[in-house]
Predict the 3D structure of the following.
Amino acid sequence: MMPPTLVRKQQPPAALAPSDQKLLAELEAKVENSMMGFCVALAEIRDHKDGVFWKDRYTSFQEYARARFGYGEQHTGRLIATGGFLLELENSKSKAPKPVRENQVRPLLNKLPAEHQIPCWEKITGKTPPAKLTGDIIEAQVVQYRKSIPAAELAAVKPERGPKKNAPLPGEKARGRSHAWLEKLKASTAGLPQAEAIGKLLDQVAGLVDRKK
């Protein structure tokens, strides 16, 4: 998994305090340049001062992530969940090595209650270093680990990393689907002589989709 490239360069909003402008620039640089650090950085951009980095310019954090990094809602959620796991691992007493790819964390988050995720990771990495672990290997190990958890505990606890913050409204979800469709349409016309003109037209449509009432 390669780190993203900013969809468009821009200066932090002038309305932010100078210290926040500096922090936002640093966090966005981490998102763009760090392999796993951007998972943590995305979460901090979302939550810093209850969304001060994006609320004045975007209707949701998902819209910000799409505009700045080209991420859809689902992928943004996965990255932030990974960032949460990394922070918990870092703040715990565990000596287990950190994951090197987001897909190494996904099976832990999807299949295990939160309190079992780090112990399972410790067990997996106790045998094999992260650099040699594929998503399929971890998936198989997680499935095996689940057998040691009582069925009642698995049924009672849905694995997730805390409540979702700034969850999109139904209209925001519709905008997300519209943007995904527009991006697919733009990609499908890339080889046409009129691709540039079509791209500009689709960008105008995307702007109408994002326009607030």
